[in-house]
């Protein structure tokens, strides 16, 4: 997604003198992808963004995965998550991951008293519930229930909840964008796209700070933790323009694509990154062929793992799953509706389910620290009752 936006005050051309009222220069910074060949934004600071007076190394970021177990469907109840005292960064509890991304949750009502910068990849925060604001280099985004918020790689930010907030967190080692098939050769969304440019909301305001003091920025790079300390507020940008910036997208602005017979999961796709896609299952009408079966057919995606995060409503192909659950269906074995759900779906006109799906093209591993959330019986929930004895 590369459409242009701007905020604040800017000089009339790039890379020219841009002076403050006292005659001193604002400091220009280019944030770009793929060297100088990808999308980019220009930011203008009161102070140099390189002007930290102290740096420290804080250790390695090393998710501890369980040893290899049998190939099976798995379910985790994130409402059992223990860490309720941390903020939006320190309170993250990771559940699944691989070399491309980490998936976890964070439930918090604690404002961050420091700033954070993920320099390994983009982050996507899905707001399960709660509200608050995210202050960033590019300005402030106010979030609410069921918003996706994307934070670009290298962006300094902090999260300030206004009420208890639960995030589904997707940390990547790459970028997050929308599917190429939705865009024309100029980058504009086409008429068949389930959303358009109006649905993506950048920072609502650019709140420029010029305070002096001591400000801490926690930085992650190459899965290592570092801290940088500044004597000026890091959110000191007076203006920016370009194609890199944080944005939010309300999940119900994804308009569902329906048909006479069951539509496969790619119609629900909203985002993608390197070796993964993210889909939004939203309330929609069911198929309208007279012999349609609205429930999905059993399928074997041999080369991908499927993760579902259950947000709201009654998910039409599952039973025994509650709000906030995460299921993992690994590639290599089939998966599909629970017993009775196929027959139950026939004749139904609509579903009110709300869920986020993440499909990865490398196997996902389970974090050791997430095992206590697991429903061990989930793998056997497709066995018909009369066979369980």
Summary of the model, kept short:
InterPro entries: HgmA_C, HgmA_N, Homogentis_dOase, RmlC-like_jellyroll, RmlC_Cupin_sf. Keywords: Dioxygenase, Iron, Metal-binding, Oxidoreductase. This protein is mainly β and 389 residues long.
Task: Describe, in plain words, how this protein is organized in 3D.
The chain is mainly beta and 389 residues long. Helix content is 1%, strand content 39%. It is built from 1 helix and 27 strands. It has one helix at 341-345, and strands spanning 5-8, 27-32, 40-45, 52-60, 74-77, 93-97, 101-108, 115-118, 123-129, 132-136, 139-143, 147-151, 156-161, 165-172, 200-201, 212-221, 224-232, 237-242, 247-250, 269-273, 276-281, 284-285, 305-312, 325-329, 350-351, 354-360, 365-366. The strands form 5 sheets. Strands 15-19-12-9-14-7-6-27 form an 8-stranded antiparallel beta sheet, with no helix packed on it. A 7-stranded mixed beta sheet has the order 4-17-16-8-13-10-11, with no helix packed on it. A 6-stranded antiparallel beta sheet has the order 5-24-23-26-21-20, with no helix packed on it. A hairpin with a 7-residue loop joins strand 2 and strand 3. It is globular. Residues 275-382 form the Homogentisate 1,2-dioxygenase C-terminal domain. Belongs to the homogentisate dioxygenase family. InterPro entries: HgmA_C (IPR046451), HgmA_N (IPR046452), Homogentis_dOase (IPR005708), RmlC-like_jellyroll (IPR014710), RmlC_Cupin_sf (IPR011051). Residues 99-249 form the Homogentisate 1,2-dioxygenase N-terminal domain. The active site is at 262 (proton acceptor).
């Amino acid at each position: 997604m590369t459409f242009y936006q701007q905020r604040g005050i800017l000089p009339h051309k790039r890379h020219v003198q841009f002076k403050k009222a006292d005659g001193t220069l604002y400091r220009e910074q280019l944030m770009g992808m793929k060297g100088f060949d990808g999308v980019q934004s220009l930011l203008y600071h009161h102070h140099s963004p390189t002007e930290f007076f102290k740096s420290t190394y804080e250790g390695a970021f090393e998710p501890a995965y369980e040893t290899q177990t049998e190939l099976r469907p798995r379910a985790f109840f994130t409402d059992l998550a223990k860490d309720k005292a941390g903020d939006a960064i320190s309170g993250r509890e990771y559940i699944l991951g691989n070399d491309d991304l980490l998936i976890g949750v964070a439930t918090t009502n604690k404002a961050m008293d420091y700033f954070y910068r993920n320099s390994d990849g983009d982050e996507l925060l899905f707001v399960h519930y709660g509200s608050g604001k995210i202050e960033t280099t590019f300005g402030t985004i106010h979030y609410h229930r069921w918003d996706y918020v994307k934070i670009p790689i290298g962006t300094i930010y902090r999260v300030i909840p206004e009420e208890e907030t639960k995030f589904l967190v997707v940390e990547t080692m790459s970028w997050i964008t929308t599917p190429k098939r939705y865009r024309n050769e100029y980058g504009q969304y086409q008429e068949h796209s389930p959303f358009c440019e109006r649905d993506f909301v950048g920072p609502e305001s650019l709140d420029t700070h010029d305070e002096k003091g001591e400000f801490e920025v926690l930085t992650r790079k190459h899965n290592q933790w570092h801290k940088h300390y500044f004597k000026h507020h890091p959110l000191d940008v007076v203006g920016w323009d370009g194609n890199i910036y944080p944005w939010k997208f309300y999940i119900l602005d994804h308009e569902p694509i329906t048909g006479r017979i069951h539509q496969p999961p790619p119609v629900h796709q909203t985002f993608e990154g390197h070796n993964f896609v993210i889909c939004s299952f939203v309330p929609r009408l069911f198929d309208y062929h007279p012999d349609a079966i609205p429930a999905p057919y059993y399928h074997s995606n041999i080369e991908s793992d499927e993760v579902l995060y259950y947000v709201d409503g009654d998910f039409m192909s599952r039973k025994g799953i509650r709000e906030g659950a995460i299921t993992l269906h690994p590639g290599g074995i089939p998966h599909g509706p629970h017993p009775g759900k196929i027959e139950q779906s026939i004749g139904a006109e609509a579903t009110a389910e709300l869920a986020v799906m993440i499909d990865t093209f490398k196997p996902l591993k389970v974090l050791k620290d997430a095992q206590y959330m697991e429903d061990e019986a989930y793998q056997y929930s497709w066995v018909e009752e009369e066979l369980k004895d």
